[in-house]
Structures are given as C-alpha cells and as structure tokens.
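Practice problem 4.
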C-alpha cells in the first residue's frame, strides 16, 4: 500500500503554495491509495481539494492553526502487520522530543508514529518503533525557537566565518631593532647586538589585537560579548519543503523522503522492519 504523509502547509499565512515540482510529482495517478495530512492546512480550500484529488481517502489531524474543531488530534490505522499513528506534534512537549514521541507511540500502541509541528524532516527508529516527520510541504518557517544543537552548530559556523575574515596575513616577526645605515656606524650596531642577552630579546608582536570571542548561546556571555541574535541565526534556519511516501508490505515499511533543495527534488530511502517474536 502506498501512503502519502504530508503537512504543515500554513497557506496563505506563511507560504503561497507547494513547490511546482512537488505538485507535478503528486499529480493524481491513482497509485497513492491514502493521504495522511498532519494538519495546518484548513485555511486553504484549494490545498484541501488538491489533496483529495490525489486520493479520495484523505485523513487529517488537527494542527495548532487549524480552525476546524471537528478534526481529531490523533488517529491510528492498521496496514497488514503494521499499526501507524499520526499526530500534528504541537501537543508533544517538548516539541519533537524523541522520548516524548516514544511515549505517544506507546499510548497509541503504534509501530510507526508520524508527527509534524517542527517543520524538520526526520526518520529514525527508537525502542523498536519507527518515527517519521514529513516536515513542512511548503517550507513554511517555524515559530519554535531553535534547540541547543542548532544554536551550537550556527555559533560554530559564525565563529569560523569571522576567523576567516579577521585572520592576519602571514608576516615574519621583526626580532631586531635595526636603523638605516645613515643613522650611525654599522660597528656600533654590531656591538649592541652582541651585548644583548638572548633571554631579554622580545620579538615585536605582529598583531596585538586579541582574538575575537566565539558567539555564545542561551544568553550566556562574557563582558563585551553578545549572544546570538535573531539576525545572526535566521539565515541558517531556512526550512526545506518536504513530504514522505510510505510503501507498506506486510511488516516492512519502505520510506521515501522527498526534499526540495536549490530547485531540485532529492529523494532518500529508509527501510523499517517490525521485529516479530
């Protein structure tokens, strides 16, 4: 059975439409038998109609920005030997936390849990269960603050960029205090040089400017330093449009992750097999 997992459209508030290449890939062919939508779609009637055109079996759970109160917060479906649960993810605290998602999967007795909310495409196994996040279909920005891992990565990138800009050119340090020939006889300079004690020589520093401090995170800073600001991090948190296709056969789920990067659609494949005792 071929299933489409997609969500977090946020049309028209944060995005105009799906990428054109996504719409072409998902044009109705009859091959996709069910659409599982992770919510944040009810504000766009045209998007709902497009999803219904892909498959008449459209299942939607409520996102935090869906105004349709009749939508369920979660749902479960059984395909062959696998039970799949879907939630938007806004009710998972902390958002996207693997242990919290594991608890949710156990409560739903699901082998596979599909969740959204974070706008980051993910697929991993934990404690024998398979966790999927199809990300945002439109690449809509997320209002959730970046986690510590993201902040550390951004701080490292910014520190390397600043170091490359401010790195001094290679110069040979001056170790002698010489004068032009016309300012005194060469013999006097030689005598002075011989009379110097080796341990008293101090080379003139090439660059007396102290190294730039690395960007800090979580508001921690030393005197003269500033924590990462929104302007610092916004260019590194661009969301990537994405969705997933699940091909379920028996106790095996083959997952295809579609991402839209630099104008091209990229596909990654992950296989999950339920452990049977």
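Answer key:
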């Amino acid at each position: 059975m071929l299933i489409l997992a997609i969500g977090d459209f946020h049309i028209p508030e944060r995005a105009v439409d799906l990428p054109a290449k996504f719409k072409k890939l998902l044009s109705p062919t009859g091959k996709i038998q069910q659409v599982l939508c992770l919510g944040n779609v009810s504000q766009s009637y045209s998007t709902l109609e497009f999803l219904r055109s892909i498959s008449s079996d459209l299942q939607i759970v409520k996102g935090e920005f869906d105004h349709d109160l009749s939508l369920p917060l979660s749902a479960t479906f059984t395909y062959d030997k696998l039970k799949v649960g879907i939630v938007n993810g806004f009710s998972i605290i902390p958002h996207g936390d693997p242990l919290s998602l594991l608890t949710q999967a156990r409560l739903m007795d699901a082998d596979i849990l599909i969740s959204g909310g974070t706008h980051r495409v993910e697929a991993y196994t934990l404690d024998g269960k398979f966790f999927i996040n199809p990300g945002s279909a439109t690449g809509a920005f997320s209002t959730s603050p970046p986690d510590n891992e993201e902040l550390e990565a951004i701080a490292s990138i910014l520190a390397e960029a600043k170091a490359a800009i401010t790195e001094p050119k290679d110069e040979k340090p001056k170790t002698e205090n010489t004068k032009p020939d016309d300012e005194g006889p060469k013999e006097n300079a030689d005598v002075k040089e011989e009379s110097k004690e080796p341990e008293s020589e101090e080379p003139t520093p090439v660059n007396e400017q102290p190294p730039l401090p690395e960007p800090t995170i979580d508001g921690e800073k030393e005197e003269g330093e500033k924590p990462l600001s929104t302007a610092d991090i916004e260019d590194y948190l661009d969301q990537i449009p994405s969705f997933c296709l699940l091909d379920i056969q028996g106790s095996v789920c083959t997952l295809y992750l579609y991402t839209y990067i630099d104008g091209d659609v990229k596909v990654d494949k992950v296989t999950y097999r339920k452990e049977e005792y």
